[in-house]
Amino acid sequence: MTDSPTVRFLTAGGAFEPTPGAEEYASYLERIGETELRRFYRDMAVVRRFDQEGTNLQRQGQMALWVPSHGQEGAQVGSAYAARPQDHIFPSYREHAVGLVRGIDVLAIVELLRGNTHGGWDPTDPSNGNFHGYCLVIGSHSLHATGYAMGLQRDGLVGTGDPEVDSAVLAYFGDGATSQGDVSEAFVFSASSQTPNVFFLQNNHWAISVPVTVQSRTPLYLRSRGFGVPSVQIDGNDVLASYAVTAKHLDEARAGHGPQFIEALTYRVGAHTSSDDPTKYADQAQHDLWVSRDPIIRLEKYLRSLGEGDAFFAEVAAEAEDFAADIRHRTLALTPPDKALIFDNVYSEPHPVVTEQKQWLERYEASFDTSPEASSVTKEQA
Amino acid sequence: MSTETTLDELPMAKALNAGLRQALADDPKVLLMGEDIGPLGGVFRVTEGLQAEFGKERVVDTPLAESGIIGTAIGLALRGYRPVCEIQFDGFIYPGFDQITSQLAKLTNRGGGAFSMPVVIRVPYGGHIGAVEHHQESPEAYFAHTPGLRLVSPSTPNDAYWMIQEAIASNDPVMFFEPKSRYWPKGPVDFTASAAPLHASRIVRTGTDVTLVGHGAMVSVLLQAAEVAQGEGVSVEVVDLRSLSPVDYGPILDSVTKTGRIVVAQEASGFVSVGSEIAATVAERAFYSLEAPVLRVSGFDTPFPPAKLETLFLPDADRVLEAVDRAMAY
Ligand SMILES: Cc1ncc(C[n+]2csc(CCOP(=O)(O)OP(=O)(O)O)c2C)c(N)n1
Ligand SMILES: [Mg+2]
């Protein structure tokens, strides 16, 4: 662990100029070629468009809430691609790009924010890429990620030397979350048990309206060190830095070298959520500065410098449009959830109170049904 | 009795804002603390403009940690301050649960009365706003069960304006539950005098056949139900609890002595709830007046469901009327 100057490969202008801190990570870029770079670009662009569509759909009344990911695609896509299939991901609630890379159908995020479900995807279904559920209680899941990593250790899935077997857990949270006791406890527990955890902080500079300076007077990557968790700060809008640094530390975690903390400096370009009003607190100069560091434009410039031409970017733009159109189409086709959802799965095993109340609601609802078939049912209560 | 000119039509959020402004102006020891309560004015704008008016020392945007907010409020109270904490949403109070139940609630007792704990915890609570998980809960029973805490919940802008000031003036910890679905509807606020003491329950509609009891947003549902029942020839009396701990049983028992029938309604799950406690007490103390069993109407004993199902979970006027019908059938 060095006294980490920020790791960056690509400048805001898209030039490949690694910082001194990037040196020890450079070899991890050898794992990816232009195919992967194009994939990074494609996913970032698609998620940007998905996010825009989410905002549109929310405004049109299709969702109660939208949580924008705009601006954070570089941090998310790079780190997500660094994870191996057997790794597990514990997101907070803004990691739409990570979900996409791991293979969930992101319509599930729409369903969640629409109020159709509290979950949306099954993290035990391998097709969902071990992408666990969104967690809306700030910081909580950092401990779940730690416990899950403890389980991997106990199952002998860490440090075997077999790259197909060794597994790690990647957990995402925000700058505001670092103030929660749970996150400090996650550092304590993961250091104590030397768990295979990588904690990935997206410091987007705001916790709703509260600037990161209220959460910490020192750079946040330093936070974990006193707990015994080594750390590094990266330019989170450089997808290459995000990929390489996460890849290295996940490798180390899988090898049994214990937890690591990554602080990705990024920016929440949009509102906190569709319910938020940043005009009350936002800093225009800061906003503009970060927009000029956009992760997608940065990679586009780099790809163009490598010889990529208009055709590719036009193709990606069209793909993003199709993706958004498909989401829109399927959102408009969503039906209301079944009322059984209120009662089902409250417990794994039958529960008399829940059973009784479910039946009561059936009878109660039927009592309002005035159709001839239902006329024998009276508004009664057993 | 106030004159027309002293009445202002305000939404509850603005009435609370006015009450907080008055409390800050009246006592330099009062301070507000919470997440996003400064420039943003809180996610419900209850503290809008207060930081600009009273400064960052009196209206504090805290780090994002509920245990920290309540724990430091306890320290400030020990030092003679009167902190008013805002919890952003009902479902986010639990990281502060230990500080509330093990410390805030017990410190006065542990200290043998040498000091008091004048801390207010404001909690926007309840459903009807179509929000995602953790944003529509009614956790009041956890706290009502904890000796050492006082719990109140206004149902009108006028009560909100006065009760927040009375809560801040109290030397005990007060959990102040704000029915968030009622933040926006306007109602009259009389700035000249409080309508009732902080812990008084109040009859808000008189009737002779059935007594309905509720608090917070439920009160408007009960009034709706009463209106419908009236049309069906049933005369309903409605009691607004206002205080959940202690409960002021006087008006409730007087009412049920008159009507002989009572339905207690709440958004919270029914099992071991405020409604359970009131039902038990009424059964104990008004047994010979009862013409029908004490009935409860509650949220189901399930987690608050996804927003698209909330109208099935939350008791509405029809669910209340169903219970009224059952009570009347005896
Ligand atoms: C325990 C808890 N308290 C409060 C909230 C309300 N809340 C939702 S998001 C948020 C800010 C989170 O900021 P940060 O951790 O930086 O993540 P970001 O939203 O910026 O991605 C707050 C206060 C919550 N969800 N959970
Ligand atoms: Mg943030």
TrEMBL record, chain A:
Q: Where in the numbering of this chain does the Dehydrogenase E1 component domain appear?
A: 42-307
Q: Which residues form a coiled coil?
A: none
* Record GO terms (molecular function): branched-chain 2-oxo acid dehydrogenase activity; magnesium ion binding
User: Which GO biological process annotations does it have?
Assistant: branched-chain amino acid catabolic process
Q: What is its EC number?
A: 1.2.4.4
| Family annotation (InterPro entries) | Alpha-ketoacid_DH_E1_comp, DH_E1, THDP-binding
Checking SUPFAM superfamilies in the record gives: Thiamin diphosphate-binding fold (THDP-binding) (SSF52518)
Q: Which reaction is this enzyme known to catalyze? A: N(6)-[(R)-lipoyl]-L-lysyl-[protein] + 3-methyl-2-oxobutanoate + H(+) = N(6)-[(R)-S(8)-2-methylpropanoyldihydrolipoyl]-L-lysyl-[protein] + CO2
Q: Does the keyword Oxidoreductase apply?
A: yes
Question: What keyword terms does UniProt attach to this protein?
Answer: Oxidoreductase, Thiamine pyrophosphate
The record's section on Pfam families has: E1_dh
- Name the coenzymes or cofactors required: thiamine diphosphate
Keyword Oxidoreductase on entry: yes
Q: Its family?
A: Belongs to the BCKDHA family.
Question: What is known about what this protein does?
Answer: The branched-chain alpha-keto dehydrogenase complex catalyzes the overall conversion of alpha-keto acids to acyl-CoA and CO(2). It contains multiple copies of three enzymatic components: branched-chain alpha-keto acid decarboxylase (E1), lipoamide acyltransferase (E2) and lipoamide dehydrogenase (E3).
By what name is this protein known? Answer: 2-oxoisovalerate dehydrogenase subunit alpha
From TrEMBL, chain B:
Q: Which cofactor does it need?
A: thiamine diphosphate
What keywords sit in the KW lines?
Oxidoreductase, Thiamine pyrophosphate
The family database entries (Pfam families) matched by this protein are listed as: Transket_pyr, Transketolase_C
Report domain Transketolase-like pyrimidine-binding positions.
Answer: 10-185
| MF annotations from Gene Ontology | magnesium ion binding; oxidoreductase activity
- Record keyword Iron present: no
Q: Any idea what this protein is called?
A: Alpha-ketoacid dehydrogenase subunit beta
Species in which this protein is naturally found: Herbiconiux oxytropis
Q: Establish whether keyword Oxidoreductase is in the entry.
A: yes
